[in-house]
Each structure stands twice: as C-alpha cells, then as structure tokens.
Write a structure and sequence with these properties.
- The complex is a heterodimer of chains A (about 240) and B (about 180).
- Chain A is built from four helices and no strands.
- Chain A has about 240 residues and is an all-alpha fold.
- Chain A is rod-shaped, with a radius of gyration of 60 Å.
- The two termini of chain A are about 55 Å apart.
- In chain B, strands 1, 2, 3, 4, 5, 6 and 7 form a seven-stranded antiparallel beta sheet that branches.
- The C terminus of chain B is likely disordered.
- Classes of the chains: A mainly alpha (about 240), B alpha+beta (about 180).
C-alpha cells in the first residue's frame, strides 16, 4: 500500500514536471503571438509552478519519512519477533533434549531392572530342584510305607500261626494265645495306619505337584510379561536413537 | 465363576489339543467322550500339567496304564518297536504327548489371556486323583478318548477360577497345529 502511494506520488510529480517543461519549451519552440491577457495568466501560472513543485516535493519527503518510520517500526517488530522466536526455539530445543535424555536414562534404567527381573528364572529353577527333592522324598516315603505294610502283613501271619500253635499247646498255650491275639490286634491297627499313611502320601503327591506346577506356570507367565516389557523398552530405546 | 461359554471354550480347545497330540497320527480321528465320574477311569497312572494365568489355572490329568496296549499304541505312533516303548521310555513318550497337548491348549487360550504360562509334566499315581477336591476346583470334567486313532487313555480337565472367567472362542475352529514344545 505504501509502495503504491510512493509510486503514485512520484508519477504525479514527474507528469507535472514534464508538463511544465513542455510548456516552457513549447513556448520557446513555437513562439507565436499570444494575447497579452493570456500571457499575463501564463506568467502568473509559471510564477506559481515552482511553489507547487516545492510543495509536492515537501509532501513527498514527508511521505517518505513516514514510510521510513513505519518501515523502521516494522523492522524493529520483526527483529523483536525473531528474537522471541529464537529464544522459544532454544527453550524448546533444550526442553526436548532434556526430555529425551530423561527418557533415554529411564529406558536404560528400566532395561537394567528388566534384566534383573529376568533373573527370576533362576528362582524358578531352584523351585524346580526343590520340587524334585520333594517328589523323591515322597517316593522314598511310599517305598518305606510299602515295606512297613509288608512287615505288618507278615506280623499278621506270624500272629495267626502263633494262635494256631497256642491252640495245639492246649491249656499250656492259653497265655500264649492271648499274646498272639494281642499281636494280631496290633498288626491290624498298624495295617490301618499304614493304609491311612499311604493315602496321605498320595494326597501329598497331588498337592505338592499341583502347587509346584502352579508356581512354575505362574513363573513362566511372569517371565513372558517381563519379556514383553523388555521388547517394548527396546523399541522405545530404538526410537530415541539410544 | 466360569461362564458356560468359557467352559465350552475350554472343552473345545482341549478337543483340538487332544486331536493334535494324542491320536496315532494328526489325521486319525480322536475325540473326547464324556465320562461321568472319576471312578469310571481305571488307568493306574496320570501325567499332570498346569496352565496358569492370574485369573485361573487349568490342571490337565492324562490317565494311562503302563500296559501292553498303551505300549503298542505309542510304539505305533512313534514308529518304534513295542519292546522299546516300556518303562521309563513309555512314561517319557506319554509325558511328551501330554506336553504337546497342553502346548496346543496353552496357545489357543493365549489368544484370550495374553499373560499365561505352562508347567512341565509330572507323573503321579492314579490314586492321587481321589484327593482332587483338595485343589478346590470350580469345574471338573472327565473324558475318554474315542476314535480309531485314539490312545487308550482318559483326560480330566480341572479348572480353578480366582475371578470371573469368560471368553467367547470360535467353536467352529478346527486348527490342530502342534503347540509349543516345552523342554523337560
């Protein structure tokens, strides 16, 4: 807009100046007799034309000054905005760098924690070994109980034989018959106890196995979840270029 | 605490797992046939495996007898001689099949429960099953394997829930790919 105004004023001034020169030169080149009244008028006009030019020039100068002032103001505003923009850019860049450093640092710390967590598999291996010890121990108890049951069966047979021998001995074997009967009773109680004990061992086998397997499967579930976390963390580190 | 559709889902996934692991071959028909009570199961040993999440645990019992019929089946399935499939070798073969079975079940369940883990197998006496109530299960089902390619074994599925368990699987899915293989 300002440029348009400047060019308009310059054009206007130039047109006037050319017209004025033509009038002056025309007067010289084509000197013709002019009426005195017209001549007076032209002389008056000619006398005023330098004044008009001065005014135009002054106006033009004034416009130029205004434009220059406005341009300077705009330049100053632009400078201020550029500085503010650069300052904000520096702040954001610093913030971004700091944030990235924090993110990289956190992701690396997390990677270290995950690495330690994955060491939990050693705990599961330990449980597995303990479980095998328990199972071996249960098997040994089964074997001992089976042996005990065999002994009890033999005691029952021996007590039965003793009862038979006591009967053969007649009156002299009465006391022995009482002892034999008592031994049979004790053998019967021992047999019942052995069966009950064996039953408890089976129950123990099931509970031990189920509990251990729950720990083992749960452990694998945890390791799977941690491995998933590790994968995500590696992707984050990759995206951060660390 | 275990919804009906979740129970159907467990049953469906177990069916897929059994088809993919306990048949004489993956192509042979091997289906689950319900067994009303534990007392109907006569096998003498069982492989125990557990699948655990923080919401529930599923205990799978694979009942078997270390007899000639079982030896013959696993020898045929493995392409070995019956004489080689006895004692510890037979137990290892059944434990490995059970492991594959639970691997498939684990993989199918992981689509609904991303945080899930599976144990390694253990073999215990069948008489231990009499104390299954001690595990405080929310739901128990027993099955016999049926079909021309089925192993002479039974399977029990015991579910212990620690929160409401619900998921809606696609019951028409027939995938029987081998599950993850646990080393033991």
């Amino acid at each position: 807009m300002m440029n348009f105004l400047v060019f308009f004023l310059l054009g206007f001034t130039c047109c006037h100046a050319l017209s004025w020169l033509r009038n002056r030169q025309g007067g010289a080149a084509f000197a013709q007799p002019i009426a005195p009244a017209v001549l007076v008028s032209q002389q008056a006009d000619a006398a005023h034309q330098p004044d008009d030019l001065d005014e135009l020039h002054a106006a033009h100068e004034q416009q130029l000054q205004i434009l220059e002032a406005e341009t300077n103001a705009v330049r100053a505003e632009l400078q201020r905005l550029q500085e503010a923009h650069e300052s904000e850019l520096r702040r954001l860049t610093k913030h971004d760098t700091d944030g990235r450093q924090v993110a990289v640092s956190s992701a690396k710390t997390q990677a270290e924690t995950i690495r330690h967590l994955l060491g939990v598999t050693k705990t599961f291996e330990r449980w597995h070994d303990d479980m095998n010890v328990l199972i071996r121990h249960n098997r040994a108890m089964h074997a001992k109980n089976d042996e005990f049951a065999q002994i009890v069966k033999q005691v029952v047979i021996v007590a039965l034989n003793a009862s038979i021998e006591a009967a053969r001995a007649g009156i002299h074997g009465r006391g022995f018959a009482v002892v034999a009967t008592e031994v049979r009773t004790l053998a019967g109680r021992a047999e019942a106890l052995s069966k009950d004990y064996r039953d408890n061992l089976y129950e123990n086998d099931l509970i031990t196995t189920a509990t251990f397997q729950d720990l083992q499967a749960g452990g694998k579930m945890i390791v799977g979840a941690v491995t998933g976390l590790d994968l995500v963390n590696r992707k984050i580190l990759g995206a951060l270029g660390a | 605490m275990i919804t009906t559709q979740a129970r159907n889902g467990f049953r469906h996934f177990l069916s897929l797992a059994v088809q993919g692991s306990l048949g004489v071959s993956p192509e042979a028909r091997c289906e689950l046939e319900p067994v009303a009570t534990l007392e109907e199961i006569r096998q003498t040993k069982m492989v125990v495996l557990t699948i655990a999440t923080y919401l529930f645990r599923a205990i799978v019992l694979i009942h078997f007898s270390p007899d000639l019929r079982t030896s013959e089946f696993f020898a045929k399935a493995r392409g070995t001689g019956t004489g080689d499939m006895t004692g510890q070798a037979l137990q290892d073969a059944i434990a490995e099949s059970g492991n594959i079975c639970c691997g498939i079940l684990n993989r199918e369940l992981s689509a609904f429960f991303p945080h899930i883990g599976m144990s390694t197998p253990n073999i215990i006496d069948r008489q231990c099953a009499a104390h299954i109530a001690e595990l405080d299960c929310s739901h128990i089902e027993h099955f016999r394997l049926a079909g021309e390619g089925a192993a002479p074994i039974c399977v029990s599925l015991c579910l212990c829930a620690y929160a409401e368990v619900d998921f809606a699987p696609d019951l028409t899915e027939q995938s029987v790919n081998t599950g993850e293989l646990e080393l033991f």
